[in-house]
Design a protein that fits this description.
By secondary structure, the protein is mainly beta. It is built from one helix and 37 strands. The protein has a domain at about 420-605: Beta Barrel (Maltoporin, Chain A). About 0% of the residues lie in helices and about 65% in strands.
């Protein structure tokens, strides 16, 4: 990747199926105007070793044809035993400047991940709840079958990007992308807790195949009427998404495997000959197809310091789904059932509007409103498809660029409402429609080059996300016992906080380049992250505590001190410096542990 961008606020008009809060934009590497030659090697704890290369240059003397090839090879473990990760990847690209107004870029990618093991969640007793009678479960403890834990995948991609400028008023862009992937997963997932020391696990094996075709065609340009400038875009896009999965569950309803969380040993060998009747369990084959087409437009109107943005989008969606399930009791008896859904056509119009005024002294207040539409392809435990996720967002804020300084300060308040928000169905081990969810809050951030040697980034956000009108209820969960409370306490979800969403988050990061008269080319950095408490279920039965994490790092440019080593740079980072043991989040009776101290360094050479 060339860069990763967090696009805050409404983006569904231009990019289609995105929720109102924002999106992540990823830009792939493409040929550069100037030659680029880079290699790097990396290392880290848990057996991490990495090598990368990135090479870009011109094909012909004039430079109208340029190429770039980037590649990576990495192997590593994680803090949990028996979980490994290996990957090889290559990304070639070619750009042809056909003339001064026309260019065409092809980007290809092939990624092979022979292994990416799955780390199981841990029971709540031993992670969130500990005592003299309930020891802490180590981060290195693997709660599964060590010889039955892998995730292998191959990915291939081809993208075409065409651009032509007819004149200074009109541009044409067209992007085509094809993606294909195959994956196979085999692991044992957390079933339930037997007692304080023992849990049940269930082996699963699944195969997935995915094909996606995306096509985006757009015209854009700008024109002036007097002192009013219009920058506009009109386009059409579509995507065709085809997905096939085959999932088999060993001993789905009969004999779960028990493992001691403090001495997890098992020689059990899973059996998945379900269709032949030799093994007990279920095997579900579920292909589905998804097609979406949209027409969109946007106009940005600027007059002096005032900018007004208006945009709209019309989407049409269709969804086909059917599945076949084979169920075996392990004695040769196999039953077959099928569920085929009729096409699910859906359509919606979404729009957004915004206004901002830039004062001469650097202050820019703004306000925006947007709506969103995201089709949901999953189904409930009865196989019924969910309604699309729709939403609306209001946001108001201030941006302040300090005159003659590299300092930008922003503040924003938001109110987001989403309908048909999906949450975990604890009773049926599926998903369910929670109805309306409302998220309100504010955030402030600062990005400042305080001096030529010191850079600072800081942010704070407050988010209050709650279920709206709903008739759903759940049974209260008692973490001390690791089970539902006894006697049963039933509570309504309406008005409760959505689980696993922290109300408060804060982070700060500083990078300091040591003055050259002290040490040439050397810099240090440090950071602090705070994540507030979250709730572990849909009815606020219990809290997962907040936590602080600290990070440090250093970097050194050898060429600043030694001319013969120009282009050679080194850096090292350490996250969770204090190796704090913390719970990142819980759901029902299981929790995910946060990552312990992680050390990563690399050596990079450019020429």
């Amino acid at each position: 990747m060339e860069r990763i961008e967090a696009v805050n606020g409404p983006a569904s008009v231009m990019y289609g199926q995105t929720t109102p809060g924002g999106m992540i934009g990823i830009t792939l590497k493409k040929p550069t105007e100037t030659p680029l030659h880079e290699i790097s090697v990396g290392f880290g704890n848990w057996g991490r070793y990495e090598g990368t290369f990135d090479y870009s240059d011109k094909v012909n003397k004039s430079g109208t044809v340029r190429f770039r090839v980037a590649g990576i090879g990495v192997t590593q473990g994680i803090q949990t035993n028996h979980v490994q990760y290996q990957r090889l990847g290559i990304l070639p690209s070619l750009t042809w400047d056909i003339d001064k107004n026309t260019s065409w870029t092809l980007v290809g990618m092939y990624k092979y991940t022979p292994n990416n093991g799955v780390d199981n969640a841990r029971p709540i007793r031993g992670t969130l709840i500990t005592s003299s009678d309930i020891p802490r479960i180590s981060r290195s403890t693997f709660l599964g079958l060590p010889d039955f834990n892998s995730y292998s995948k191959t990915d291939a991609m081809l993208e075409s990007q065409f651009h032509h400028s007819f004149n200074k008023f009109l541009n044409f862009d067209q992007t085509f992308r094809w993606d294909h992937s195959n994956a196979k997963t085999q692991y044992s997932y957390f079933g339930s807790a037997v007692d304080a020391d023992t849990i049940k696990i269930r082996p699963e094996i699944s195969k997935q195949s995915l094909n996606t075709i995306q096509f985006d065609t757009r015209f854009s340009g700008s024109f002036k009427i007097g002192k009013v400038k219009n920058t506009w875009v009109v386009g059409n896009d579509f995507r065709d998404y085809s997905y096939n999965t085959d999932s088999a569950f060993d001993q789905q309803s009969d004999v779960p495997i028990s493992i001691n969380v403090y001495n997890p040993q098992s020689n059990y060998i899973p059996c998945f000959s379900i269709r032949s009747g030799k093994c007990a369990g279920t095997d579900t084959v579920a292909p589905y197809d998804f097609f979406q087409e949209g027409i969109y437009f946007q106009d940005q109107i600027k007059w002096k310091g005032l900018s007004v943005l208006l945009g709209g989008r019309q989407d049409w969606v269709n969804f086909h789904y059917h599945d076949t399930t084979y169920t075996s009791d392990g004695t040769g008896n196999v039953t077959q059932s099928s569920d085929k859904k009729a096409p699910q056509p859906q359509s919606a119009f979404t729009w957004r509007g915004g206004i901002i005024y830039n004062f001469n002294f650097g202050l820019a207040p703004y306000f925006s409103y947007s709506t969103s539409f995201v089709p949901q392809t999953s189904t409930d435990y009865l196989g019924h498809p969910f309604s699309p996720l729709t939403g609306k967002q209001l946001e108001a804020g201030l941006k302040y660029k300090v005159p003659y300084k590299d300092i930008l300060i922003t503040a924003a308040a938001f109110d987001i409402t989403e309908n048909h928000y999906l949450i975990e169905d604890l009773v049926h081990d599926s998903e369910k429609d929670a109805g309306t969810v409302r998220s309100r809050g504010f955030e402030v951030s600062a990005n400042a080059n305080i001096t030529k040697d010191l850079r600072l980034i800081a942010s704070y956000s407050y988010t209050d996300t709650r279920f709206g009108k709903s008739n759903l209820t759940d049974n209260a969960f008692c973490p001390s016992s690791g089970k539902a409370c006894s006697p049963i306490i039933e509570r309504a979800e309406e008005g409760k906080a959505v689980p696993r969403i922290p109300r408060n988050m804060f982070s700060i990061f500083a990078d300091y380049a040591v003055p050259s008269n002290i040490v040439q080319g050397f810099g240090i950095n440090w950071g602090m992250r705070y994540v507030g408490f979250t709730y572990g279920d849909n009815i606020e039965s219990y809290k997962v505590p907040a936590y602080f994490l600290f990070d440090i790092g250093a970097h050194y440019d050898f060429g600043k001190r030694f001319r013969s080593l120009n282009g050679l740079k080194a850096q090292i980072t350490i996250s969770n410096l204090t190796n704090k043991y913390y719970v990142a989040g819980c759901a029902s009776g299981v929790c995910n542990l946060g990552e312990g101290r992680k050390v990563y360094g690399n050596l990079t050479y450019n020429w």
